[in-house]
Every structure is written in structure tokens, then in C-alpha cells.
Amino acid sequence: MRSVFISLSLALSLLLLAEPGQAQQRPAAPAPADKVRESKPGKPGKLSRKERKELARRAELEEASQQRQLSDRDRGMSESFFVDGVKYVLLEDYNKALERLLKAYALNPANAAISYKIAETNLLSGNLKDATNFAQAAVKLDPKNAYYYLLLAQIYASQKQYDQATKVYAQLIQDVPDSGYYLFNLADLYLAQGKLTDALATLERAEKQFGALDEVSFKKQQIYLKQNNLDKALQEGEVLIKANPDEIRYVLAQAEMYAANNRLPDAIRVAEQALRTDPENPQAHMIMADVYRQQGNAAESEKQIKLAFESPGLDIDDKVRVLVDFIKQLPNPKLEQTALDLAAITIRVHPKDAKAYSVAGDIQTLTNHKKDARDNYLKAIKYDNTRYQIWQQVVLIDAELNQTDSLLTHSERALELFPNQAPLWFYNGVGYMLKKQPTKGVKSLEYGRKLATDNPELLAQFDTQLGDAYHELKDYKKSDAAYEAALTFDANNAQALNNYSYFLSIRGEKLDRAKEMAGKLVKQFPENDTYLDTYAWVLYKQKDYAGARQSLEKALQTSKDGTVIEHYGDVLYQLGEKDKAHAEWLRAKKTGGTSELIDRKIKDKKLYE
């Protein structure tokens, strides 16, 4: 017998030309000419009902005949192609899979399993049109196989054709014996479309068939909530609790529902019921804490939330979320101690979790417990050193506490992990400046500045620090250029204005520019003793001693700084008040922080510059 072969393209063309659901059947043989009734005038080609039935019967017989005529060889080849195709599906090589499966289909198109597998493969490869056609064919060829309906429904759902998918499930439930449990899938499809009434009716059908089921009651409850039918939802909840008094999740869900709808006494009643079953249940304590908070009972609310936090059953992530809510409200004297206590409990209950120490550090930072915060950040790093933000907090607190050795140690450790983070280079450079190592400071600052080109604000901070660093190295040209760059970005940069003008006054250069910058600062901050001292020293260098005296006397109303006092003595000396100048130098010496010339000034009662 001549072997049968059909090309892949021809098989696809036959499929696409066929009507949906009929692509897999061979066309019925035309009826014999002597059996076709001649058409009456005006109704060409119209057949009677009896004739249509006869043609359908003949088509079925022809199909059955063709099935019987399928040779053992063709059947074997089809099965071989099918097995090969399934293998390639498992290997996710869908092109080869379809090539084999379509060859199997060409030899045996009436095999429902082949159509099913072709449909599944097309779905996996994203060809939803062919997937739909072949799945329809599989259902038609074997209308009692539930898996074929399920695949067709899945294909429709993946195209968001939920109406079609629901029809498939309805047909499945109707035509396939013992398939009532698919009512739950049908209900979920109705829910996906927002057809709440249909979903509810389907669940009630399931209840009639299978009896009362917790899952059905729970889903009905959710539907009632979406319908804003609170009474019905609560009623279903009470039914669930009554049927399952020891199932604490239903009790907690009911308590949360009461709390969310301002039924606070009922929420407490049901939450207490949960605690009778499980006295340490953290969710029940959290519900109680929230209800008491809504009632304005702060003490009882705090008690309940602490009981919840004491439980290891409350996940660390849930605790962190609660603490983050506190952080958003800080600083707040009414909440600070509670937040600190909850952070301490979290650490005690989760002693090896970096998140516990990290969130505690955040709370301590905001409540001005900086040293404790840094200690906890370092413990967080011990358990997880991959979070850059924690390292940044550590070095920032080091800088704020003026602990230079710690700043250098921690910034160096952080840079080993995050060498491309410009802020870490900034703090490292600042650390070297504080250690009086300007050469190393410049190296770190210049490297970090290259990494900060996309952050103009940070770039200006680098330039300001570089201005200070280059001044220490007596590279005044680079120092001035760095300050000018910082002021180009922010003309009101206080640190740049103050340091730049002060260093110019010390050098006795660009005094008009220095006076302009220092005067701008004093105008903006008229009570700042540091800025008043800088402005006074610029005036001093311009020999405006009276103006310098006025500025310094204003600064000394708040300042105890030895440098300011020494400057005041120098001004008095220039104004001829030498005895007063000597007294101020003595006071400056006692205060500390003076220049290297203070001892000569005191000894000789003479001004040295």
C-alpha cells in the first residue's frame, strides 16, 4: 500500500481553512448523485431535514470506514511521531515538537490525544490561534475527557476571553460525568470577570452538590464584601466559626472584619475568642492593639502590641512594617519610648536577623541615640554586610560624633565592598582631613569626585572639602578653584563662603572678594559667632579695626572660642587698648584653641602676626 505523507505547511493550511472545531476531521465523502434531490425552483440546493440527517449519518459511516482503513503501518508511524513530539515538548523544543506532532496528526487526524498535544504545544509556544483550533477539535473528538476541556478553557483564559472559558467549564460540568468539582473553577472565572452574582450562584450550586464546605463559605464571604453586603459577610463568618470553632484563621478573619468596619466591641469579643484558643497568637494581639488604639486606649494598645512582638510567630517582616510606621511618625515624644521598646523586643526575639538591628538603628537615629544606633547598625552588618545604606549610616554617625578613627576604619571597610559609592570616598576623605593627613584626603576626595559627576549637590560638597584640603597643602590656586566651583553650583554654600573668605583673609589676598562672601554670610546668619569672627578678620586685614571690633563683640555674646577671643585682643591692640588686649589674650590662652603666637603675645604684651 502506498504510504501516506503530508507536509507541515499543507497540514497547517488544511487546519486554517477548516471551520473551528472541525479542522481535525476529514471531509465527508459527497453523497451519490442519484441520492441528491433535485432543487425546486426558487430554493436552489435546499435539503429536507430527513436528507440532512441521512447525509450526516453517511459522513459518520465514512469516517468510521476511514478509521477502519488506517493500516497498522500508518498507525505505528503516527504513534512514533507522537511519542517523538511529546519528547521534544518536554525538552521545550516546540518547533521540532510541532513538526513531529503534525506528522502524527496527518496520519491519524481522528486521534483526540494528538490534537490535544498539538494544542498544548501551540499554547506553550504562544500560537494561541492554532492552540484554540486544535483544543476545540480534541473536545469534539472526545467529549468525555475533562482534560481537553480544561486545556481549552486555559487557552481562552490566557487570551482574557473569559466568557468563552466559562462556557467551556459549563459544558464540561454538563457533559462529563463526576465533574461537579469544576464548579469551583467556574466560580473563580466569574470572579475574575467581576461577575459576582454568577460566582455566588455557582458556589451555591457547589454547596447543593457537595454540602457545606469551608472554602465555599469563605469565598462567599469575600463576594459579599465586594458587594458591600457587610451583614451577609459577617453572617458567613459566624457560620464558619460555628462550624470550625478551633480553626483560628476564621476567627481572626472575622475579628479583622469587625475592626475594619468600626464594630470595635465585636472585634474585641472575637479576638478574645481567638486568644482563648491560642493565648499567644500574635495576630490576635495585633488586632486588639489596633482596636484599643482606635478607642483611644493608648496604654492597653501598647500592652497588646508588645505581647504580639514578644511572639516568634509574628514574622520579622511584619514587625519591621509596624516599626516603619512608627519611624514615619518620629520624632514624636509620645511615641519614641514605645518605638524604642518594640525595637528592643524585636532584637531580643530575632537576635540573628540583620533587619532587627537595622530598624532599631533607624529608630535610635531619629530619637537622637546616635551611639546606640551605630552599634546596632554594626551588628546588622555582622549578619548582612551587603546593604550599602547601613554602611552609609555608620560612617555618617562616625562623622557626627567626631570619632575620626572609627570614621576611617568603617569607611575603609565599606569601600572594600562598595568601591563605586562616591559618598563613602567623601567620608573617607573627610576622615583623613580630620586626622591632619591632607594628602590622603585629597586622594580620596578627587577619586570620589569622579564618581559623583551625575550628582551636582554631592559634587559641590566634594569641591568644598577639596578647597579646605588644598589650602592645607598650600596649593592655593587649586583651593580657590575648588571653592569657586562649589559656589557656582550653590552661591549660598555656607561652608564654602566662610572657609574661602577666611583663608583669603589669612593670606591677605582678594580681600574685597573675601569681604563680599563673609558679609553675605553675616547678613543671612547675623547671630552666628563663627561667621561674625570670619567677617571681623576680613575687616581686620583691611585695617577696618572699628568694624572688626563691632563684629567680634557681637560674636563674643555667644562664643567661648579661644580663637575669637584672641582675635578680639588683636583688634584691641590695634586700637591702642593694649592692657585690654593683654587681658583678652590671657583669657584666650585659658580657654584654649589659640594660635601658636599666643604665648609670645602674652609674654611681651605685644602683637605678633
What does this structure look like?
The chain is mostly helical. Helix content is 74%, strand content 0%. The chain has 33 helices and no strands. It has helices spanning 8-17, 49-68, 72-90, 94-107, 112-125, 128-141, 146-158, 162-175, 183-192, 196-210, 214-226, 230-243, 248-260, 264-277, 282-294, 298-309, 316-329, 333-349, 354-366, 370-383, 388-400, 404-417, 422-434, 438-451, 456-472, 476-489, 494-507, 511-524, 529-541, 545-555, 562-574, 578-591, 598-604. Helix 3 packs antiparallel against helix 4 and helix 8 (162-175) packs antiparallel against helix 9. The longest helix is centred in the N-terminal third of the chain and has 20 residues, at 49-68. The chain is elongated. The model is unreliable at 1-45 (pLDDT under 50).
Compact description:
74% of the residues lie in helices and 0% in strands. It is mainly alpha-helical and 609 residues long.
Instruction: Classify the helix fraction into a percent range.
Output: over 70%
Mean pLDDT across residues: 86
Uncertain runs with pLDDT below 50, 5 residues or more?
A: 1-45
Number of strands: 0
Q: Main sheet, how many strands, which sense, barrel? A: none
Proportion in β-strands = under 5%
Task: Assign the structural class, choosing from mainly alpha, mainly beta, alpha/beta, alpha+beta, or little secondary structure.
Answer: mainly alpha
The rough form would be described as elongated
Q: Give the end-to-end Cα distance, rounded to a whole number of Å.
A: 120 Å
Indicate the radius of gyration in whole angstroms.
43 Å
The helix tally amounts to 33
